[in-house]
Structure to design on (929 residues):
């Protein structure tokens, strides 16, 4: 089946990219102003431990073999030891993952739930100038105002007038949902603004494009009502690019999480990695970057695959190449 | 003269784009010539009270060292645009070259370049900023590197796609049959035809570059003192947010306006090159 | 008896950024009963606009200036949204040039048919319909996506979609232009057969005289937004009454004798921005006189066909013409 072939190709490309990412991180690791043993073991270690590490990671062997050893360790979840806490990096990251994951997922959800309907309305040409105007404004402003500017504005507003939402004070969701949501709402909205603008613009362009396609004329000529056409034909065809753009948005979120967590003192992976940089805790920095890139590649590969499944023309088009 | 023509084409096409183009022009002019205007001295410590609110003599107030904020913002505009523009120009040149070669030569070279571009694309910009800062320390070189790494993959892909579609058209084959060398074909035939796409991507890359630079500077990983971009101004301003909000407000608004005007100009360019007609569903 | 289709002096213009283009300059057409009529004209003659106007499918920048279009007595332009949708659904069918873009690429063909068929039209009925338009292996076709079908098969599907509710009138705009020559006659035969099979009128829009000659009973020739000649094929093509028809026949390849030269028509069709003064064809017409420049021809019945020309009688009796009817 052609679709299956294309999917496998995409998976392969994803895996190759992951390997490429690992190579880049490895090179960066060796180039960092700290020795490899320090990174793996932390700065306080016995000569015997260092010798063991040297042997285990094959530091006396060729770079290629070192890479293999290091990569093997990474795949088993061993990212080294944190300089600051002397505990395994993987454990520290896992502790802080929930905040970042919640932030990312909530922001994506808000962006889709708000951006997609607004974008569809803005794209339908008989939506009236007001709707389209609002769409343009949101699209332009949301994509241009940096998230830390919005964040700073929020911090200022909500420090002066509380309105029930807090800056800081994060608590894991399952401990105390209310406090959790009060703390995470502002960061979510701050990050979601860009997402709403992005998805609104993409949806609008996509809807406009679909409206010019011939099968819409067929549907109108067949006497379907406006909303029937939107539901049956426009949305299905127009939502295909949304997957790609959501993947791009998640890439933005991975980076944006760093700034927003710093701004709002949200104890997530972003804040952790950023602080680690200030502390020269390179093991953590390397792990954070590797993780972010790996997640991004995975999301992109998945969205590519979903795209292939949804749009049967893609598989056919590749054959023609 | 041509700029005037282009501008009026903009304005007639779409008022919003025309306004944005005008705003952009004004901002660039301020950035270039701002230091010559009698707006105050950006380096004069103690010209006014520390963290003083806006007054007639000090239109945007003063910062934490008593310097008038207005000239600081003007300087910030210049630095922000300068850094982003340099980075984007480099990206455009590299991207156009690599993209054309990749599409024209095809084969394993194309495959390799695409995979390398994929790897470059895999790192979200700010995350990459952390890595680069760890390696070579924060600063303008760091920022430019990150911007290039973040925008190059898309540039390559776009140029490659456009070149591929051109290569299939007759005139390239005709030139080759007539005996033109590959280099000649690339420069004389392909290059002029990709300028449209490059121009549109350039404006988007510029806005992305400005976002990246300001983000990194806000974190302290970008422009370092004594230089100040709008992003780093926001960083120092954020410290005094609750007691002297005008700093964050003014630099934030200016930065947002700058990025917005670039985005709108980019949209306008794209509409000019590829207008889509809406269809009524009645 | 209300006529099936009545178009009276319809004038339509397109308002674009670059100015106003008058696509129909008082075009008229009357179909009293279901028949197969071919509308012949170059691009820019207004035939596509007229075809789309029948279903009020013109883009939003099109304006109807005056004139009326009635389908089975119902005014198309005065109808409200719901009635026009009803007309489109139940009384009209459209077949356009490119079958690939006319079908939804993300939906299986069978499903598209079932949706279009309405209540009490299910999978079985869809398979029957596919068989009726000449498709073999209906089950496989029904579960295919449009891009998995060949051009000819896809066009048959489009025809099936158009006739699913047994419309009174089918409009086909260059339905075979995207298809291989070998398929053309089959598709056209299928379209024409609908008149007897379902008592559906068929309007075939084409720029190819050959096609119209072979498959239609009646022909309407369009030029510069008007129907300049309208009558039975045997009458019009044997003995044209309008200089344009005459010129078209002389310029059409395929029917000349060996050694005979084709005569292209000098000049190009006009692009109107307002009501044409005089006859639209006058600048290119070898029979044109002073009257033709200033006085718009009115529709007249001359020798069993309707014609818009001041000099029809002279043209019909012109000894220089050759016999083109075969």
């Amino acid at each position: 089946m052609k679709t299956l072939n294309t999917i496998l190709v995409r998976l392969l490309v994803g895996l190759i990219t992951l390997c490429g990412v690992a190579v880049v991180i490895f090179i960066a690791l060796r180039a960092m102003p700290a020795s490899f043993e320090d990174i793996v073991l932390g700065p306080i270690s016995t000569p015997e431990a260092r010798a063991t590490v040297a042997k285990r990671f094959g530091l006396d062997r060729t770079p290629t073999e070192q890479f293999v050893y290091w990569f093997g360790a990474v795949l088993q979840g061993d990212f080294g030891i944190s300089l600051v806490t002397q505990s395994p990096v993987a454990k520290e990251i896992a502790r802080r993952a929930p905040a970042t994951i919640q932030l990312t997922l909530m922001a994506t959800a808000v962006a889709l739930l708000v951006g997609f309907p607004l974008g569809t309305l803005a794209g339908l040409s008989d939506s009236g100038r007001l709707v389209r105007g609002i769409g343009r404004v949101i699209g332009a402003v949301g994509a241009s105002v940096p998230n830390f500017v919005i964040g700073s504005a929020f911090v200022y507003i909500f420090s002066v007038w509380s309105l029930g939402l807090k800056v800081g004070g994060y608590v894991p969701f399952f401990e105390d949902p209310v406090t959790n949501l009060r703390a995470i709402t502002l960061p979510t909205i701050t990050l979601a603004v860009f997402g709403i603008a992005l998805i609104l613009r993409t949806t609008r362009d996509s809807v406009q494009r679909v409206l010019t396609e011939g099968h819409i004329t067929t549907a109108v000529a067949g006497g379907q009502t406006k909303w029937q056409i939107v539901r049956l034909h426009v949305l299905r065809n127009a939502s295909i690019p949304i997957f790609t753009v959501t993947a791009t948005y998640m890439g933005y979120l991975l980076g944006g999480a760093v700034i927003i967590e710093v701004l709002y003192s949200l104890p997530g992976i972003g804040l952790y990695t950023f602080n680690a940089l200030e502390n020269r805790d390179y093991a953590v920095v390397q792990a954070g970057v590797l993780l972010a890139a790996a997640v991004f590649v995975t999301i992109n590969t998945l969205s590519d695959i979903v795209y292939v499944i949804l749009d049967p023309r893609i598989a056919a088009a590749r054959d023609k190449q | 003269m041509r700029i005037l023509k282009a501008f009026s084409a903009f304005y007639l096409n779409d008022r919003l784009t025309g306004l944005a183009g005008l705003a952009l022009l004004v901002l660039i002019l301020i950035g270039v010539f701002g230091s010559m205007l009698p707006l105050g001295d950006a380096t004069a410590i103690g010209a006014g009270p520390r963290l003083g609110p806006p007054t007639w003599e000090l239109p945007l107030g003063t910062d934490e060292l008593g310097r008038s904020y207005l000239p600081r913002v003007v300087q910030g505009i210049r630095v922000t645009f300068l850094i982003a523009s340099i980075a984007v120009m480099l990206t455009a040149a590299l991207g156009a070259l690599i993209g054309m070669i990749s599409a024209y030569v095809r084969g394993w070279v194309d495959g390799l370049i695409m995979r390398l571009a994929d790897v470059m694309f895999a790192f979200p910009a700010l995350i990459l900023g952390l890595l680069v800062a760890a390696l070579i320390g924060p600063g303008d070189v760091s920022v430019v590197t990150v911007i290039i790494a973040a925008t190059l993959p898309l540039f390559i892909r776009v140029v490659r796609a456009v070149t591929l579609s051109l290569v299939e058209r007759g005139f390239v084959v005709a030139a080759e049959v007539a005996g033109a060398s590959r280099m000649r074909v690339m420069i004389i035939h392909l290059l002029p035809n990709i300028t449209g796409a490059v121009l549109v991507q350039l404006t988007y890359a510029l806005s992305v570059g400005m976002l990246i630079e300001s983000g990194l500077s806000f974190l302290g990983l970008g422009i370092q003192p004594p230089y100040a971009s709008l992003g780093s101004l926001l960083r120092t301003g954020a410290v005094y947010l609750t007691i002297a909000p005008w700093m964050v407000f003014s630099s934030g608004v200016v930065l947002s306006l700058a990025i917005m005007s670039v985005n709108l100009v980019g949209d306008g360019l794209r509409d000019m090159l590829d207008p889509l007609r809406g269809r009524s569903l009645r | 008896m209300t006529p099936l289709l009545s178009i009276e002096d319809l004038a339509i213009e397109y308002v674009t950024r670059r100015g106003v283009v008058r696509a129909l300059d008082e075009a008229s057409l009357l179909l009293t009963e279901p028949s197969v009529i071919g509308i012949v004209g170059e691009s820019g003659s207004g035939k596509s606009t007229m075809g789309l106007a029948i279903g009020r499918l013109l883009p939003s920048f099109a304006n109807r200036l005056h004139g009326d279009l009635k389908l089975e007595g119902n005014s198309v332009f005065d109808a409200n949204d719901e009635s026009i949708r009803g007309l489109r659904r139940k009384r009209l069918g459209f077949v356009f040039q490119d079958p690939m873009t006319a079908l939804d690429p993300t939906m299986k063909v069978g499903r598209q048919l079932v949706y279009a068929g309405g209540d009490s039209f299910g999978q079985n009925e869809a398979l029957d319909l596919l068989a009726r338009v000449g498709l073999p292996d209906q089950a496989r076709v029904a579960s295919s996506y449009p891009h998995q079908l060949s051009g000819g098969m896809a066009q048959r599907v489009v025809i099936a979609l158009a006739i699913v509710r047994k419309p009174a009138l089918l409009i086909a705009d260059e339905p075979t232009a995207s298809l291989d020559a070998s398929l053309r006659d089959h598709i056209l035969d299928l379209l024409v057969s609908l008149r007897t099979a379902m008592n559906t009128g068929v309007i075939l829009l084409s720029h190819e005289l050959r096609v119209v000659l072979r498959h239609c009973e009646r022909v309407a020739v369009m030029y510069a937004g008007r129907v300049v000649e309208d009558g039975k094929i045997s009458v019009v093509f044997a003995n044209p009454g309008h200089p344009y028809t005459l010129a078209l026949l002389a310029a059409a390849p395929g029917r000349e004798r060996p050694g005979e030269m084709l005569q292209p028509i000098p000049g190009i069709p006009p692009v109107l921005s307002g009501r044409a003064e005089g006859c639209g064809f006058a600048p290119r017409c070898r029979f044109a006189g002073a009257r033709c420049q200033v006085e718009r021809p009115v529709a007249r019945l001359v020798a069993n066909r309707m014609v818009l020309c001041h000099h029809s009688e002279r043209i019909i009796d012109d000894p220089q013409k050759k016999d083109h009817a075969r």
User: Anything to note?
Assistant: Chain A has a mean pLDDT of 85. The CA atoms of residues 15 and 316 of chain A lie 24 Å apart. The two ends of chain A are 17 Å apart (CA to CA).
